[in-house]
TrEMBL record:
A Gene Ontology BP annotation from the UniProt entry: RNA 3'-end processing
Protein's organism: Schistosoma haematobium
Transmembrane spans: none
Domain annotation Poly(A) RNA polymerase mitochondrial-like central palm: ranges: 79-170
The protein's name: Zinc finger, CCHC domain-containing protein, variant 2
Pfam families per record: MTPAP-like_central
Signal sequence interval, chain numbering: none
Annotated GO MF terms: poly(A) RNA polymerase activity
Length: 171
């Protein structure tokens, strides 16, 4: 069974200051990088000031940016921009997704002709937002709610589907 974790009052208090030593930082000794914020060890950050996509408010007035912290921050910002540009230029278009859904629906018609209550679902990058116009489409076929013996039953199911697909003029 699961153990119930006790939460202390300081964990509940939203304005508690956390030491940076628990958070990855930029340094010559460590390869761990705190995205967008490279601050010295020990500088507290305010949890209450956290907002998504925003730089945390540094509560210590002793923080003075150095060339290493600035270069790390610029590197991470540049890397983030390059990753976004790559994703934006290669992501799956709505038209490509519509084609995949039409294929899924056509295949489901064939599958339901063989296995009446079967489900066919898009899984993987095509559905989770990381698909590209060049990516394939992963599908999950569900013909029963019980576990199948993969070597015998799954082979039988797929061979029955193959027979139906060969008869279909669309494929």
């Amino acid at each position: 069974m699961f153990k119930k974790n006790k939460i202390s009052k300081t964990q509940v208090n939203k304005s508690v200051n956390l030491p940076i030593s628990n958070i990855p930082v930029c340094s010559n000794e460590s390869k761990m990088i705190n995205h967008r914020n490279c601050v010295p060890d020990g500088t507290p950050l305010s949890v209450a000031s956290f907002q998504p996509n925003a730089k945390p408010f540094i509560t210590s007035s002793s923080f003075i940016p150095t060339s290493s912290t600035l270069s790390c921050s610029l590197y991470m910002e540049n890397l983030s921009v390059k990753i976004w540009e790559l994703y934006s230029s290669t992501r799956q278009s709505p038209l490509k997704y519509e084609k995949k859904v039409r294929l899924l629906n056509a295949l489901h018609m064939v599958v339901s002709g063989v296995f009446e209550n079967a489900g066919l679902y898009i899984v993987g990058s095509s559905i989770n937002g990381f698909g590209s116009n060049q990516s394939d489409m992963d599908m999950c076929l569900l013909v029963t709610s019980r576990d199948l013996h993969q070597k015998s039953e799954a082979t039988f199911i797929l061979s029955r589907l193959l027979q139906s697909l060969r008869k279909c003029r669309k494929f």
